[in-house]
Each structure stands twice: as structure tokens, then as C-alpha cells.
Amino acid sequence: MSVTWLRGNALTLLENGADFFPALQAAIDAAEAEIFLETYIFANDETGHCIAAALRRAAARGVTVRLMVDGFGGREFVATLMDDLVEAGVNVLIYRREVAQLSLRRHRLRRLHRKLAVIDGRIAFVGGINIISDFGTANHNAPRQDYSVRIEGPLLGPIHGTVTRVWELVTWASFRRRPSLPASPPLHPEPCGDVEAGFLIRDNIRHRRDIEDAYLVAIAAARREVIVANAYFLPGRRFRQALLSAAKRGVRVTLLTQGWTDHPLQQRATRALYGQFLAGGVRIFEYHRSHLHAKVAVVDERWATVGSSNIDPFSLLLAREANVFVRDAGFAEDLRLRLRRVMAKGASEISADASQRGSRLQRLLNWAAYGLVRLMIGIAGYGNRH
């Protein structure tokens, strides 16, 4: 499915929790009728308590509040915050609740990884920022690096449609009687800006490759520059070839990946691919100032995307994801400059010589990790698709 571009939107790029959480809380506090909030993680920390309090205040003044949290990423939420919110009148659903922590079923990996909010059908937020403090990363004084977009305008229609559909689906699948909630009519918001944008999801039914394909189309059309900043970057053959082909025809291709990670196996697997990219003319930067959690890209200073989807098997083959795509020079240039600033202040470039000079043991460990990840994908039944 190609991107359906809608004109007349007002978009605001939000960087890190310092921008995102005050904007989200202000929208919640101004809500009059309805709130949808989807998140992978809802932490029992200062940030989680702040957003939870805002949701409780909204429910207390009669707003219909629908909160959906993933059952794996939100295990802490279920144990600590959920009951108080339910008691306060917030409608809470858990997406695929974790029961057996040692289960090896592949369906266990099909998670709700989206980070979406829709307030009164007027304001939406789409991005990669969970409800968790920016400063939860050990030994780092800088905030977790991530992005979200505040949206007004016609793009609210498809965003509101997807949160409504997933809420209804999970309600039905829970097999439990729930109180009847007010119906959410389809939205047809009026234009309120001049930005052209589209919205795509990834699921396991009709939209399996939509986000990846949108990336590939944009990279194939690139003529000057491609910047991809991605927290968990382990692309399949099609994506790797698209980047290498762009570099071969003279496009400046830059990757920004994690230098510090909470998933060392995947990081080693990613580093196993560095040699191929560097040999093909792709520049690689690793971010060390804090935890890079971004899932964004800019192409030719005109096209941009911000969302929840990593370029890895989990996001591209298993999880529910959501990205906003933008065709607007001002927005794309804003994101590009922010990424350049992040690279200048907190990232180091990986040189081809350094990649080759790494110890034989380190290179062996990287390829062993890559092989193990591929094996895990194959066991899960997705090897031929990545």
C-alpha cells in the first residue's frame, strides 16, 4: 500500500520528552470528550505518574479515556499503575497480556509497539516516545534521544480510525464483558495548515510491508541525501540493497545507530553489517551521549518520517507499528538539522579502517550474533521474509 498524501495539516516536531510530555499533558488536560492513548511502555516513574494523573483528571471531568498498553512492555504498568487508573474511571486494555514469561510461542513476539495519542479527534501524537522518563538510562546524564510529531488537520482521520479499530479488536479478543463506551464516529477534520503528510501502520494482516515499502520508495527516488536514524537497525536484503544502490549513484547516505544499547546481541548483529555498508560508501555514526531511541529518516530535504518502527525484524515482521510520513521542505529540514546537531554533539563516525582493524574476536562475535539473530527469525517462521 502506497502512502495516501493528505494536504492541509499542521505538524510540530517534538524532540525528546522535554518537548513531548508537556505537549501531551496539555492536550490531555484540555480534552473535553475523548482520549485514546497507546504505548508500549508506561513506566512507574515520575513521568508515568504525571501522565497517569492527567488521565485521572480527564476521567474525573467526564472525558472517555481509553488507554492501551502492551502486555510485555507494560508488565510494570500492570503491576503498579493499572488498578488506580481503572478505579479512577480510565478504561484500560492490555494488548496480549504476559502470563507465562518463559513461553517460546512466536505469537508472543507480536506486540503493540505503537506510540499514538488522539485527543477529541482534534490533536494526535505519532512517534517513538514511550511513557517513561528520558533519564532512566544508567550512567548517562543526557536524555534518551527520540522524536514525536503533534498533528492537526485531515491526517487525524486515519489516525483516529486505527486507534478505534485496534481498541475494538482488543476489546472483542479479551472475552470479557466491558461497559459500553460512547461510539467514536469517523472523523473528517478540516485543513488547518499547509503540510502534506501521510500515515501508515504495520500489522500482521493487510499492512505487513507498508512502512518498509514507503522507506524503499523514498530511498529509490533519492538524488542528494538520505539520513536514517534508527535505534535497532538490522535491515533485510531489500533495505540494505536500497541504501547501497543510493550510495552507488552518488547519494550521500548516512546511518545513525546506537553506541550504547540495552540489546547487545542485536547491536553486535548490526555491527556485522558495517563492513558492507562502509565498503559501499555509506557513512555510519554511533550515538554515545545517551540511549538513541529514534526511528526517523530524511530524504533529499523534502521527505521525512517519524514513528515507532525500527528497521529490524521485530518491527518489520512482527509488531504493530505506526509512522507519519511528511512531504514538506520546512519539516524535513528541521529534522535534518536536528539530526546533524545530534551527530555533532554525541556521535562518533565509524571509519572503514577502524571497522577492519577490530580484533578478530570482536568480528567473530559480531557475525555469531548476526547468525544467531537470523536463526531466531527462522525458528519464528519468518526467515524467508527478511
In short, what is this structure?
By secondary structure, the chain is of the alpha+beta class. It has helices at residues 16-30, 46-60, 75-80, 82-87, 156-173, 210-221, 237-248, 264-271, 274-279, 313-318, 329-346, 352-357, 360-379; strands spanning 6-15, 34-39, 64-70, 91-95, 115-119, 123-127, 147-152, 195-202, 225-230, 252-258, 283-287, 295-299, 303-307, 321-327, 347-350.
Explain the overall architecture.
With 386 residues, the chain is α+β, with helices and mostly antiparallel strands. The protein has two domains: 6-173, 2-Layer Sandwich (Endonuclease, Chain A), CATH 3.30.870.10; 198-385, Endonuclease, Chain A (2-Layer Sandwich). The protein has 13 helices and 15 strands. It has helices at residues 16-30, 46-60, 75-80, 82-87, 156-173, 210-221, 237-248, 264-271, 274-279, 313-318, 329-346, 352-357, 360-379, and strands at residues 6-15, 34-39, 64-70, 91-95, 115-119, 123-127, 147-152, 195-202, 225-230, 252-258, 283-287, 295-299, 303-307, 321-327, 347-350. The protein has a 15-stranded mixed β-sheet, sandwiched between helices. Strand 9 (225-230), helix 7 and strand 10 (252-258) form a beta-alpha-beta unit. Helix 6 (210-221) runs parallel beside helix 7 (237-248) and helix 8 crosses helix 13. The longest helix has 20 residues, at 360-379. The model has no long low-confidence stretch (mean pLDDT 90).
Number of DSSP-assigned strands: 15
How is the largest sheet built, in terms of strand order? 4-3-2-5-6-7-1-8-14-13-12-9-10-11-15
Order of helices and strands: EHEHEHHEEEEHEHEHEHHEEEHEHEHH
At the fourth level of CATH, the homologous superfamily of the largest domain is Endonuclease Chain A
Strand content: 15-25%
Report the principal-axis shape: globular
Q: In CATH terms, what is the architecture of the largest domain?
A: 2-Layer Sandwich
Q: How many separate structural domains?
A: 2
